[in-house]
Amino acid sequence: MLQKEIQREYYNKFVELVVEIAKWLGMYNSLPAIWWFIIASIVAALFFFFIIAVFALIAIYVERKVSGHVQDRLGPMETGWHGILQTLADTIKLFLKEDIIPAAVDRKLFILAPVIVFMTSLAVFVVFPFSEKFVVTELNIGILYVVAISTVVVPGIIMAGWSSNNKWSLFGAMRSAAQIVSYEIPVGLSIVCAVMAAGDLSMQGIVVKQAGGFWNWFIFSNPFTFVAFFIYFLASLAEVNRMPFDIPEAESELVAGYMTEYSGIRWAFFFLAEYGNMLAVSIIAVTLFLGGWQAPFPALEFIPGWLWFLCKTLFLVFVQIWMRWTLPRLRVDQLMYICWKVLTPFAFVCIFGGGLWQVLIK
Amino acid sequence: MQRYFLNIYIGIKTILIGMFITLKHMFTKSVTVQYPHKKLDIPERCRNLLLNKIEDCIGCYQCARACPVYCITMETIKAFEGENLGLTSDGSKKRLWIPVFDIDMAKCCYCGLCTYPCPTKCLIMTDKYEYSTYKRDNLIFHFTNVDAVKAAELREKDHIRKMEKEK
Ligand code: SF4
Ligand code: SF4
Fold it and tell me: Domain total for chain B?
């Protein structure tokens, strides 16, 4: 019921907000209503672009700092206080770089690929509930949408690899596609676990079901979802090509995988997409298993939801970075072993057990 | 089957151990020295920039001959009658003007062979190691106590002296 209320109240909240502002400015009647919808969508896209960009700036800095300290170094120290402006400086440098399109590439695909890759990582953000109020579109099949959209990245990556006309790019793209397609399965299955526990496909609905303290979060609600969380986390690492699953970009063998031929701003888009994905999978994990914007104790509910959401997400991002600097890269066969022989069967067991638990215990 | 589960167990265990280790290192003091701001003392006998204390140099060419890559270029002019060039700090008499004493550090291989034969111990390795420049010419270090005007004058006088001798 609570979920229904929220849906009614916040359905397409963002569009309404834009319409409201337009009315307030006295501009609403100057354009047909559909235009306001389009404008709202553009504003939302820009907003998430901004979020991803800022997140990437911070995450790259944190990543460099963490990697430094893990290896007993200091990381960037010179630009600004403790190197805090380092990524900003790097970004400016990237923007000023010459945009090189090699002569032998397939121009159209080469230009299109980073757009597709970045677009998919941007598109999933619309359904994420950032707080009890803020969610751009409250889709009732939110999580399905996320899974569906995030698979569109594969054609983008293949395009990048194929159009680059470069052996490393092609190998990287092939590996990446194989990896993403295989790891979609444990990801999907572990998501099903959470969805079964919630009995809802809407992201906001899933979060609402986890209200009232951390023991109601799906990670702790039964042993099968507990395992499912770790399956999801590992598989999502592989999906976003992060260490220890960064075989598609393995620097030591493939230069930079499918990004080898890219430079300047196009390369920046791939990079941004990578960090966007990192954020997105953390958000999904938080939403599905860690209670989204819910406070861990009912007594702490006076702290705004988005703050909890931010803390949990950034913690998961930190864990990702931490794992990256701990574990060495896997071999391709090991990668496939983990996916097909470990994560997938375990995910099936989780679904089965979770279902039984739902029926018998609850 | 047993091996399969054992494998998974070991995998999880080792990941946790590894992550614990990296976590520990995240909070240990880092070993980085913030170089341009903080410099380590360099060992006493290490080889860096060469320095010729020209007021002690007697212009004996020992160093230039010892150098395996010929990076020391010298020109000496015998002192003229009535000129007293003074003594070096160890009491040897200086008999030669040294209008040119150039060390090309771009060629130098830091073998230190030039410093050993120097009779007055005036050619030494210093502890200076930051002398990179944008121009290769700037790596030629000039050591001379004779300025350009004086050097031209000396060469002129030397030429005249030679001509007189030949007569
Ligand atoms: S250190 Fe070696 S190479 Fe350098 S000037 Fe002396 S003798 Fe020549
Ligand atoms: S060996 Fe010493 S004294 Fe002789 S020319 Fe070289 S620097 Fe001068």
Answer: 1
Q: Is residue A47 part of a domain?
A: no
Half-sphere exposure of B70 (CA within 13 A, CB side): 0
- Number of domains making up chain A: 1
Q: B125: which strand partners?
A: B50
- For residue A41, the 8-state DSSP code is H
Exposure class string for A1-28: b at 16+ Cβ within 10 A, else e:
eebeebbeebeeebbeebbeebeeeeee
**Is B6 in CB contact (< 8 Å) with chain A?**
no
Which residue type, as a one-letter code, is found at position A254? L
Interface contact B22-A70, CB threshold 8 A: yes
Rounded Cα–Cα distance for residues A250 and A257 (Å): 7
Asked if B8's CB is within 8 angstroms of A325's CB, the reply is no
Assigned domain for A60 exists: no
For residue B29, the 8-state DSSP code is P
Q: What percent of chain B has pLDDT over 90?
A: 3
Please tell me if residue A144 touches chain B, with a CB cutoff of 8 Å: no
As beta bridge partners, residue B102 has B73, B142
Asked whether residue B34 is assigned to any structural domain, the reply reads no
Grouping H, G, I as helix, E, B as strand and the rest as coil, residue A155 is: helix
pLDDT at A12: 58
- What is the nearest CA distance from A67 to chain B, expressed in angstroms? 8
ipTM of the complex: 0.72
pLDDT tens-digit series, residues A201-225 = 877 778 877 777 777 777 777 888 8
Assigned domain for A343 exists = yes
In a domain, B93, yes or no: yes
User: Rounded to whole angstroms, how far apart are CA atoms B12 and B67?
Assistant: 62
Among B106, B92, B167, CA closest to B139: B106
Helices (H) and strands (E) in chain B, counts: 3, 5
Pairwise CA distance, residues A273 & A275, whole Å? 5
Contacts of B24 in chain A (CB under 8 A): none
Q: Does residue A69 lie within any of the structural domains?
A: no
Structural domain of B144: 50-166
**Residue B47, min C-alpha distance to chain A (Å):** 28
**Torsion over CA: A93, A95, A98, A103 (sign):** positive
Is residue B2 in some structural domain?
A: no
**pLDDT at position A11 over 70:** no
The confidence score (pLDDT) of residue B134 equals 92
Model confidence band, residue A105 (pLDDT cutoffs 50, 70, 90): confident
How does DSSP classify residue B121? S
For ligand 1, the distance from its centroid to the CA atom of residue B76, given in whole angstroms, is 19
Q: What is the CATH number of the domain that holds B67?
A: 3.30.70.3270
Q: Which residues of A touch B25 (CB under 8 A)?
A: 69-72
Residue A358 CA from chain centroid, whole number: 28
Q: Is residue B106 part of a domain?
A: yes
